[in-house]
Recover the amino acids of this structure.
């Protein structure tokens, strides 16, 4: 299928709208792909909203780990809601158009919220480190004021470091095409449409990616190295297993978030021989799966959350 450059602003060499192609090569099965996408979106919405309500109403869950988890849930809800409705409209109604400004806004939200998610996962790792390596100082170090400060710092870091991205793209010339070979707007997909020099902008994007997700991941690894050193010094096997069990949920969250994130990041920049539909499918998994899995992981592994959830369901059924 061929697309031509529509609604083109000749003065600024900037299209007024972009066309989202979807998943290249799989356009014929978009309607079928939309079914699991929609189900995952609904589960994500219900799971994260339920988690927020459970933590809010249960004062015993007002601990640093669960407060950071609630911040992660809010970011998850915002991220999926800024992308999935548009993706589903593309799959269901073949509505491909997205205004230039709306595309830049979506791109900014995706990258800034993803950065915030990474920061909240790091904050949860910091909580585990303090709880295991310095248990007697946990309540004095992670006070409500410190938790709020960390949360605001993570939000401002994501909002400020990613704020140049829309401006880096806004004033460029898009003289090639207005067709984005993706299901949503993101930095690397847009910059490929530019016909001017983009080395500085690409370099800034790489630096920001390293200073946020890359650095966060390194610090998470460091925290777990220190946690393991502390655990291995515990006197009994039972104590070691009990301590490690408090980290299982968080480790799963790390794997679910960073595995598709790194794969998507690396294939965008270095995986030129990987089929486009594979890369875009993984990029969509990165948006869909972590927001759905985070409340499920903690719901399954945390007895208090699980009991409250079933109690909530019982009340609703009655």
């Amino acid at each position: 299928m061929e697309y031509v450059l529509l609604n083109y602003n000749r003065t600024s060499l900037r299209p007024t709208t972009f066309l989202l192609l979807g998943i290249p090569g799989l356009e014929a099965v978009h309607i079928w792909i939309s079914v699991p996408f929609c189900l995952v979106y609904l589960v994500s919405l219900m799971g994260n909203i339920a988690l927020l309500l459970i933590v809010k109403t249960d004062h015993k869950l007002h601990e640093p780990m669960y407060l950071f988890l609630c911040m992660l849930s809010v970011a998850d809800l915002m991220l999926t809601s800024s992308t999935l409705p548009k993706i589903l409209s593309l799959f269901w109604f073949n509505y491909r158009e997205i205004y230039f400004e709306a595309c830049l806004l979506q791109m900014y939200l995706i990258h800034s919220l993803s950065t915030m998610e990474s920061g909240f996962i790091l904050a949860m790792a910091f909580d585990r480190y303090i709880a295991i390596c310095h248990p007697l100082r946990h309540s004095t170090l992670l006070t409500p004021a410190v938790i709020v400060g960390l949360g605001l710092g993570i939000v401002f870091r994501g909002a400020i470091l990613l704020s140049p991205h829309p401006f880096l793209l806004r004033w460029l010339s898009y003289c090639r095409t207005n067709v984005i070979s993706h299901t949503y707007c993101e930095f690397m997909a847009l910059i490929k449409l530019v016909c001017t020099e983009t080395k500085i902008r690409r370099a800034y994007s790489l630096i920001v990616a390293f200073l946020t997700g890359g650095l966060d991941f390194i610090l998470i690894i460091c925290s777990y190295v220190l946690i393991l050193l502390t655990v291995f010094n515990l006197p009994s096997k039972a104590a070691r297993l009990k301590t490690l069990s408090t980290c299982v949920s968080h480790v799963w969250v790390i794997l679910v978030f960073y595995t598709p994130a790194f794969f998507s990041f690396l294939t965008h920049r270095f995986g030129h021989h990987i089929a486009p539909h594979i890369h875009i499918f993984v990029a969509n998994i990165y948006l869909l799966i972590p927001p759905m899995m985070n409340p499920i992981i903690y719901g399954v592994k945390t007895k208090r959350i699980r009991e409250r959830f079933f109690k909530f369901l019982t009340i609703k059924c009655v």
